[in-house]
Amino acid sequence: MLLGKTTKKMSVVSSTVRGRGERRSVLGSWVGEESASMAGDVAGESEKIHVAIRLRPLNDKEKAKNDVSDWECISSNTLIFKSSMPDRSMLPAAFTFDRVFGPDSGTKQVYEEAAKEVALSVVTGVNASIFAYGQTSSGKTYTMSGVTKYALADIFDYIYKNQEREFVLKFSAIEIYNEAVRDLLSSDPSPLRLLDDPERGTVVDKLIEEPIEDWNHLQELFSICEAQRHIGETALNEFSSRSHQILRLTVESCARDNLGAENLSTLTASLNFIDLAGSERASQTWSTGTRLKEGSHINRSLLTLGTVIRKLSKGRNGHIPYRESKLTRILQNSLGGNAKTAIICTMSPARCHAEQSRNTLGFASCAKEVSTSAQVNVVMTDKALVKQLQREISRLEGQLERQAKSSFGGTVSKTNDTAALLREKDLLIEQMEKEIKELTWQRDLAQSHIDSLLKSVGEDRLFRVEENSVSEADAGLVRSNTEREYDQFSMPSPVPNRQLLETQASLEAYSLQEEIPQRNTSESENICRDVPCAEMGETPSTKMATTADETAEVALTTIEETKELCDVGSYDIHEILKRRVQELQKTIESLNQSSPFSSGKGVSLTRSKSKKVVVVTIPSALWSKKEEDEEDSEEDGCNARDSSATDEEIPERRGNSKEEDNKGLKMEHESGMKDSDYPESCVVGTKEDEIIKEIDVHFDDTTSVLDSVAGWKKGKKMMKHQKQPTRELGVISVVEPSRRIPEAMPTTRARDLVSETNRSSNQSPANWSQKFERYRRKIIELWAKCNIPLVHRSYFFLLFKGDPSDNVYLEVELRRLYFIKDTAARGNNPVVDTQIATYTSSPKLLNRERMMLAKQLQKKLSRKEREEIYLKWNIELDTKQRALQLAGKLWTDLRNMRHVRESSILVVKLIGFVEPQYAPKELFGLNFLNPSANQKGSWRDNMSALL
Ligand SMILES: Nc1ncnc2c1ncn2[C@@H]1O[C@H](COP(=O)(O)OP(=O)(O)OP(=O)(O)O)[C@@H](O)[C@H]1O
């Protein structure tokens, strides 16, 4: 009845489970060692092998020989040797095992008390093995056949009683005969191979694993195995088993209510019934021929088994020779692995087998010391695994939450203090990160300001000094090519703002990505950075920059250290962080003090240790003294000019001829030197004629800005050039006209100039408007020719809309562009060699700028906004690299003012650091309208105002 119900249930189970095909299966192979990966979620606990001894009764042959029984079970677990023979005195008097069974114990009892628990663990997903070990004819087969049947009956009964789970049973059987593995369910006697599966261990290849349909089916299979097993007659046993037999029942089960759910997991385990061949002595069995050979193999494999057990009983140190026999190889998991194991050692009580019995007891004694670690084997579907892991995570999270609650709640405790410290630490880290940003920003700001001021007040006071040939006093006042190049291709930004710097950084990053030649990279750097590179003495600017760098570094280090401290959970972190903050504050203060405007210190010009030409910038604060020093050495060739010139002389110069005006664009007008006073290579003229023509000289009735400036500068003796042996020095002198309008020019004159210009414009607004348009178109044209950055163009275009006061800016921009164009055109002139190189490389810079804009487009605008812009700019939405296409279209149709305006608006939107209407005109390097901005000490205020 049980089997009938079970049969029906298992059929259903079988089809149901297999139909999913999601779980691992051992079908088609016989696994000698369950894979560790099959191990489920219940970690195995170490458990000793269960060892029982069974004494059989004296058999007829033994009785016939009047043999006596020397063994007696004095308790359920103690066996004594009761022989009084002298040679037995060395044996222990008593042996204790988990269970001992005397001759009167039936197999049922043996099973119940020595094997049942182990056997039934298979239905709970735990592997199990039941051995019968003993000498030949001791009753192993007799015991195991009974134990197997009882166990299977109990398993079937369990299945019947546990309807909530569905089971699949599979059966396989092998024998190891003369070290050959044979499938007992197959009629093919060919030996099977053992395979080493990295995941599942030793596997018998091509072994039949028969799904059990019902009890009768199982009985049939048993019958097949019995018929197939090698049996032979020996002197001791008429039906002696000549092979080791291993019957395996695999039980898989899953909960019925999980079948339709995600949480589908299957328990799977195997129960091995191992009936070993008996150890035998040839002298006793009188084996010869085949039997002798069989006995030899049997003994050898049993010897290996004994060795393995003995080694295992002493711990798992050293090599365990599992692989020395197929028996131990296959049973490796049962011998100390993932399985519960019970060994029933059978003994003959006869005195004639005392020695063999003693060996059996020795084996049993070792076996009981061997531990296994059985686990519940759960095979899960991926879904079930995920589900389970999620549950585990939830559980752990809950646990953490509970711990956190218990930690923060309640009375004041050390844990509470730690939490408060951690919170405080987080705040400090946050604060320091802000400070780092602020310091970095201040550093960039200060450095940029220094750049602009140095460029304006000391624009022409740049030295090139060659250490070996020129003394400091003899050093000529020449401008740095680097500076000029910077002027041309970098957006002049005497009053930078944060976003502008970020944009510059972005462009520099692009340059780095593009592997710009080093020279170009350095070109984009400012003058101050040239100084330390040239190994000159420390200047305020370099000092400040260094200080700021160090500050940022200190701050970063602080953050890192803080994080480390957090990691180690230091309780001193609070104090350390406070100290760090104080240090940072001090550094900020020193940074402020190190400003040349607050310290009042100037450049200390020292000789370069390098033999290379170097460039030095000198703030105007120190310039007077330097000038005085240099006046003493005028005899060197370059005469100081017009040192006594005054503003009053300017009108005379205005009245000079056109030729002289042209010269005014040359360095002579600034420095007071004539062309003839310069080395040929030092003179860089501009095509004033062209300029006059093209801009429709509008200073017919008013003072030319440049002339005025040149005159003032001359009168003010702002610059002196000393004649130098140019060929020896290889230095050049190039002065850019736009540079001749310094911020440091007398502010009254600047205001006058603007007033003058404004007056002129105000007198004829229509005329000014036309001029503005002409200027602007010319500027746009020159921007393109000179490859001026689009950002500069855009801001300039949007900023100067025709206000009369814009006149000055347009004028200067125009002059600057002509100068760039003119100097670039002198391709064979070594004086401008660097500039030409820069000029030719400027299209690359423009390309990089377009790439940057394309990137900004993707970064700043939403997909929808981008698509609208693409459509507006006639870029197909299904084309590739639309952003680059768009960037490539910017500032291309230069005669179309609408295009130019839209390009400008888009560029500004993408850069987005200052709204054009709020952008200061000082952004373009001039400040005629707010002289106070140039006052020393006010630079920080100016910066702040611009931000
Ligand atoms: N406990 C027992 N009670 C009664 N008879 C037993 C008992 N144990 C074994 N026998 C009998 O002893 C004989 C030998 O037993 P069995 O074949 O099981 O020994 P074995 O250890 O398997 O020997 P082998 O190693 O040679 O196969 C059998 O005839 C069996 O019926």
From TrEMBL:
<keyword id="KW-0505">Motor protein</keyword>
<dbReference type="InterPro" id="IPR036961">
    <property type="entry name" value="Kinesin_motor_dom_sf"/>
</dbReference>
<feature type="compositionally biased region" description="Acidic residues">
    <location>
        <begin position="628"/>
        <end position="637"/>
    </location>
</feature>
<dbReference type="InterPro" id="IPR019821">
    <property type="entry name" value="Kinesin_motor_CS"/>
</dbReference>
<feature type="compositionally biased region" description="Basic and acidic residues">
    <location>
        <begin position="651"/>
        <end position="677"/>
    </location>
</feature>
<feature type="region of interest" description="Disordered">
    <location>
        <begin position="624"/>
        <end position="680"/>
    </location>
</feature>
<dbReference type="GO" id="GO:0005874">
    <property type="term" value="C:microtubule"/>
</dbReference>
<keyword id="KW-0175">Coiled coil</keyword>
<dbReference type="GO" id="GO:0008017">
    <property type="term" value="F:microtubule binding"/>
</dbReference>
<dbReference type="Pfam" id="PF00225">
    <property type="entry name" value="Kinesin"/>
</dbReference>
<keyword id="KW-0067">ATP-binding</keyword>
<dbReference type="InterPro" id="IPR027417">
    <property type="entry name" value="P-loop_NTPase"/>
</dbReference>
<feature type="domain" description="Kinesin motor">
    <location>
        <begin position="48"/>
        <end position="370"/>
    </location>
</feature>
<comment type="similarity">
    <text>Belongs to the TRAFAC class myosin-kinesin ATPase superfamily. Kinesin family. KIN-7 subfamily.</text>
</comment>
<feature type="binding site">
    <location>
        <begin position="134"/>
        <end position="141"/>
    </location>
    <ligand>
        <name>ATP</name>
    </ligand>
</feature>
<dbReference type="InterPro" id="IPR021881">
    <property type="entry name" value="NACK_C"/>
</dbReference>
<keyword id="KW-0493">Microtubule</keyword>
<dbReference type="InterPro" id="IPR027640">
    <property type="entry name" value="Kinesin-like_fam"/>
</dbReference>
<dbReference type="InterPro" id="IPR001752">
    <property type="entry name" value="Kinesin_motor_dom"/>
</dbReference>
<keyword id="KW-0547">Nucleotide-binding</keyword>
<dbReference type="GO" id="GO:0005524">
    <property type="term" value="F:ATP binding"/>
</dbReference>
<feature type="coiled-coil region">
    <location>
        <begin position="379"/>
        <end position="449"/>
    </location>
</feature>
<protein>
    <recommendedName>
        <fullName>Kinesin-like protein</fullName>
    </recommendedName>
</protein>
<dbReference type="GO" id="GO:0007018">
    <property type="term" value="P:microtubule-based movement"/>
</dbReference>
<dbReference type="GO" id="GO:0003777">
    <property type="term" value="F:microtubule motor activity"/>
</dbReference>
<dbReference type="Pfam" id="PF11995">
    <property type="entry name" value="DUF3490"/>
</dbReference>
